[in-house]
Amino acid sequence: MRGFFNFGTSRPPSMNLDALARLAFAFTISVHYVFPLITIGGFFWLAWRTFGVDPWSKVKRTLGPLMLFVVLGISTGYVLKWHFEMIWTPYYDIIATMFDPVLGLEAPISLAGFVVFLFLLFVAYRRGSILLLRVAAIGLVLTTLVSATAITSVNAWMQYPSGVRLISNPLANSVERISLPGVIFSPTFWTRLQHVLLGALMIGISWFSSRFRLIEYRALFVLLMIWVGQFYVGHRHAGEVYAYQPEKFAAFEGHQSFYGPADLWLLPVKNHRYNIKLEGMASKMLVNDATASMPGLDAWDQSFLTDLLDAVFASYHTMVLSHIAILFALLLIWYYRDRRPKRAVMLMKLVVGLSLLANYAGWYTAEMGRQPWIIRGIMLTRSASVPASSQTAYMGMLLSLLALVVPLILWRIFGINQRVKRLFRA
Fold first, then answer.
1. CA distance 333 to 117
2. In degrees, to the nearest 5, what angle opens at C-alpha 13 toward C-alphas 11 and 18?
3. What is the dihedral of CA 9, 13, 17, 22, to 10 degrees?
4. Cα–Cα 20 to 30 A to 12, which of 92, 121, 215, 295?
């Protein structure tokens, strides 16, 4: 992203310090990103398993890691908020103004939900109540959905703002919210939310399934259905990107010509000597016409396009290839499940890695692709941060590392996972 990864040495020293602070922010948000995903998918898996045979054993095996992921999500999330307030102050001021009713409630509701429903889960075990266990597990799923909805809403609005009006005056430009529902439910919100949730379910279910010696057919079937749903939602998402951010879609596909049919490149390599091209296939998939004209990168002024066209192209195609590889891995797991169960478990671990790769690649594509805007049409990325002092930059790096390392060390020292298992010992 412009301002995130463009660290040329020709820039003034103050910009290098600012780049260091942004690197700390990029590290923090990349670390934080995985924990909401795996907790959403993991708690869904836990709730689903409470309706199966011997749910207490499933709770005993999975609750410890899930609690760790919750703690890591909270610790890195608060450091991320610090970065927004200290480094991305102009951007944070706009976001807070637009989403103050949502962001003001999201954190306390999520924190209270985790505390209440985890406590309820332990009460359910003490009383041996399956009904109470299911209520607690479903409550934890709903708690994770609160955070997912708020985060996705903010991101969708940044991609295509709605429910606001721009006000220009001699002193400055400002943004005024005219409709809170319009801000929260921007045109691409629902598709993005489905995209995020399906990706989280793929990660969570595959990760927890890989922790057992035998892969269940039900888990495999659900993962295959998630794959099909993600394929459909991803295709619809691409159509919305073309409708609302056509220059971003052109960067995804590497479509260069001013107006012409969009070809489909299969590999994440911008050097077309080593790639495979299906002529007109992107136009065919999008509008069912291989000869349909679509604006390419040449149709846009260079100042409106990201500086990282090659990176956007590579990350987008990496996401697509990872998704295809997941399908082949799931089919192989189905084949080896009874014949070679150990190999099936190893392949499920591969699915976890591929799912993470697909999610990160898709997220980086979305974030890099909208540059140079941090809020499209409203705020440029270069205007979203304040100059960082050396103390702020290094403090950001230190907090990012501590937010990840300290909970892991404390978790290990106090043996929380083993304590949780003993609580649920039959």
1. 34
2. 85
3. -50
4. 92
